[in-house]
Amino acid sequence: MRCTQKEMREKLGISRDTLRFYEQKGIIEPEVDPQNGYRYYDDWQVNLLWDCKQYQAMGFSLAEVLEILKSDTMDDLCARVERRSEEVVDEIRRKELELTCLRTRAAEMRRAERSLGLFELIDFAGRVYVPIREDHGFREGVGAEAVAFSNAHFSVSEPLLWFPEAGRDHFFWGYACTPATYRALGAPEAEWIVRIEAATALSTWVDAGERWNVGLSLFEGLLDEARSRGLVPRHEICADLVARAHGADGYHRYLHAYLPLV
């Protein structure tokens, strides 16, 4: 069988750019008619393209596919596929973490509006926290490593507002996950990680509304409720930013706040 470029594209369901890309990478080598420049592809080129598409579907890069098709021995190929299978195990584990976080986030979102002003004593799981901003500016000394970590794990973390001292209007913005999620990630300890320890906590929901409306005053009700119950705060307040949403009455930022107790 001998195909023109158009026939090849139609048979394999790929674009001209994709076909030319495979040629440029050296995966296929069509016969070129010297008189008119037309490209022709034989059965072997078709087989190589099918193999290429299959290996790409298995998760191999084009560079890896080129090595597989051009130079891999059977031992090389077996080792490569075994490594890829281990990567898929890690990817599944990551997807399971993401699924758990999505379900938790959805449940929190469903509660947000109807729970405003509700106070509850809960078992606060703690947070592993990367503070990126201090008050309304970027925190001094935040390194590229800390930012890279946050960027890599947005899907299993959420924005967190943290007041290190419950009586002082000074806060940090950053991203946090539960200790269990952090352990599952297998991430190393680092100097820019802040651990907010697990504790019994008084919790509530607040709406920060429009931009800039963030400060200790948002949590006065939480502090007043703790005093009225005779509870002793540990020393800090933190709050997950659960959702930003538009409503008929304006813009809303729903926070689930925690006051860890002694």
Commentary on this structure:
With 262 residues, the protein is an alpha+beta fold. Helices cover 40% and strands 27% of the residues. It is built from eight helices and twelve strands. Strands 4, 5, 6, 7, 8, 9, 10, 11 and 12 form a nine-stranded antiparallel sheet that branches. Strands 1-3-2 form a three-stranded antiparallel sheet.
Average pLDDT metric = 91
Secondary structure class reads alpha+beta
Give helix and strand order, one letter per element, not per position: EHHEEHHHEEEHEEHEEHEE
Poorly predicted parts: none
Question: What's the helix and strand layout?
Answer:
Blueprint: E1 2-4, H1 5-12, H2 16-24, E2 31-32, E3 39-42, H3 43-57, H4 62-70, H5 74-112, E4 120-124, E5 127-134, E6 137-138, H6 144-152, E7 158-163, E8 172-177, H7 179-185, E9 194-196, E10 199-207, H8 220-228, E11 237-247, E12 250-260
Antiparallel strand pairs: 1-3, 2-3, 4-10, 5-6, 5-8, 5-9, 7-8, 7-11, 10-12, 11-12
Question: Could you name the key traits of this structure?
Answer:
9-stranded antiparallel beta sheet; alpha+beta; 40% helix; 3-stranded antiparallel beta sheet; 8 helices; 12 strands
In summary, what is this structure?
The protein is of the alpha+beta class and 262 residues long. Helix content is 40%, strand content 27%.
